[in-house]
């Protein structure tokens, strides 16, 4: 009995020593910030009542630097997929707050015993909103915009009130979402606005670890668990490396105006209905000649929460996506706020992206693009002729 008591004390003491060996940073305010790659910011509340407070970075394709900053102190480290970092925030010299920042493991369903090659109807309407039919919880037929800028499944409040019979428990409970012949489980969220003529958004991470092929020519969406050979062997496809910032996919592209060239990361946003959105801070930092871009129009945009955003649409001389060159592209320039707080990045929207048959490989974290029959079609805000 004495032996067991001593052993228990040793184990308990070892745990305390291990915890005290964790890095300790100090704070007097409960408000902190987490900086991820490319300057993306997350606000963080320090709460000593939570035994282990966890922040997930969302998907990262490769190791990235993370910085946690309080009003007094900071800690910096690198995280790779599947890793986590524990540390203690000492609040007001008395409360120890055990904190963890983690990065989820990368998914790859190509090794699964069940092979999936599913075909789903896929359309894009006159508002540049793509949509696919889904069935929620086995009873509710909905049209959802496949949005690479969204995660999980979001349903607009109007459809929740008047169309959805399920009466779901939002934010907490997972429900089956039938897409094609397969069902995927997801939590549900409400949203004020989505694309035109749809009931909500279908987030990309429903298919994480798989391959999503979008064929605008034949109005089909394919979900693959293994990469089809016809994609790999098609020389018309160009491959782009995917970078994730706050769980959103980005590819590198280039803008040109009056002899000035600027390469940057562009958010690959299938839910954004226009052609291009340019971040004003990124433009200023690169001394891009915005004043030389002819103004097409000035409008008020509405965000997904119904908030108003004044936007100028101007004529961008050239957009280069890999080897593909698009000219006279209508670009929206944010005059207030930022498309992605903390990060100087631009957006590619559906009015450009629909011009390419697309393969989103969430296994190897790359995107394949190939021009399609819409490539030379005019833009919604076209000024002049696209060549």
Write up what this structure looks like.
The chain is mainly beta and about 375 residues long. The chain contains five helices and 29 strands. The protein has helices at about 1-20, 155-160, 230, 280-285, 350-355, and strands spanning about 25, 30-35, 40-45, 55, 65-70, 75-80, 85-90, 95-100, 115-120, 125, 130-135, 140-145, 155, 175-180, 180-190, 200-205, 210-215, 220-225, 240, 245, 250-255, 260-270, 275-280, 295-300, 310-320, 325-335, 345-350, 355-360, 365-370. The strands form five sheets. It has a six-stranded antiparallel β-sheet, with no helix packed on it. Strand 24 (about 295-300) and strand 25 form a beta hairpin. The chain is globular, with a radius of gyration of 24 Å. The N and C termini lie far apart (about 85 Å). The model is unreliable at about 1-20 (pLDDT under 50).
**Helix count, DSSP H or I runs of 4 or more residues:** 5
Q: Calculate Rg over CA atoms.
A: 24 Å
Task: Summarize model confidence as the mean pLDDT.
Answer: 91
The unreliable regions are 1-19
Helix content: 10-25%
Structural class: mainly beta
What form results from the Cα inertia axes? globular
Ends apart, CA distance between termini: 86 Å
Q: Biggest β-sheet, characterized?
A: 6 strands, antiparallel
Key attributes of the depicted protein:
46% strand; 387 residues; six-stranded antiparallel sheet; mainly beta; single chain; disordered N terminus; six-stranded mixed β-barrel; globular
């Amino acid at each position: 009995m004495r032996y067991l008591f001593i052993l228990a004390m040793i184990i308990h003491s070892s745990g305390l020593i291990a915890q005290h060996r964790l890095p300790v940073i100090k704070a007097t305010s409960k408000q902190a910030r987490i900086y991820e790659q490319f300057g993306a910011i997350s606000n963080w509340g320090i709460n000593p009542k939570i035994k282990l407070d966890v922040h997930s970075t969302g998907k990262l394709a490769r190791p990235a630097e993370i910085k946690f900053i309080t009003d007094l102190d900071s800690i910096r480290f690198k995280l790779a997929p599947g890793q986590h970092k524990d540390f203690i925030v000492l609040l007001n010299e008395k409360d120890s707050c055990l904190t963890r920042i983690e990065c989820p493991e990368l998914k790859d369903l190509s090794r699964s015993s069940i092979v999936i090659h599913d075909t789903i109807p896929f359309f894009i309407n006159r508002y540049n909103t793509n949509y696919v039919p889904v069935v929620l919880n086995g009873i509710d037929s909905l049209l959802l915009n496949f949005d690479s800028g969204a995660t999980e499944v979001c349903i607009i409040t109007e459809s929740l009130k008047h169309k959805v019979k399920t009466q779901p428990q939002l934010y907490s409970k997972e429900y089956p979402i039938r897409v094609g012949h397969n069902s995927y489980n997801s939590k549900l969220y409400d949203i004020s606005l989505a694309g035109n003529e749809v009931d909500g958004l279908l987030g990309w991470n429903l298919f994480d670890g798989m391959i999503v092929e979008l064929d605008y020519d034949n109005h089909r969406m394919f979900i693959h668990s293994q990469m089809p050979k016809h994609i790999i062997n098609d020389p018309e496809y160009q491959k782009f490396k995917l970078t994730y910032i706050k769980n959103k996919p980005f590819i590198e592209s280039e803008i040109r105006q009056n002899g000035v060239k600027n390469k940057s990361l562009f958010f690959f946003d299938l839910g954004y209905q226009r052609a291009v959105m340019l971040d004003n801070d990124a433009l200023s930092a690169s001394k891009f000649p915005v004043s030389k871009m002819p103004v097409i129009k000035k409008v008020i945009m509405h965000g997904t929460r119904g908030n108003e955003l004044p936007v100028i649409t101007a004529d961008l001389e050239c957009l280069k996506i890999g080897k593909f060159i698009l000219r006279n592209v209508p670009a929206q320039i944010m005059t207030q706020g930022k498309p992605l707080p903390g990060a100087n990045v631009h957006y590619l929207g559906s009015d450009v992206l629909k011009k390419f048959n697309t393969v989103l490989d969430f296994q190897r974290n790359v995107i394949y693009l190939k021009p399609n029959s819409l490539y030379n079609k005019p833009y919604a805000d076209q000024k002049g002729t696209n060549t």
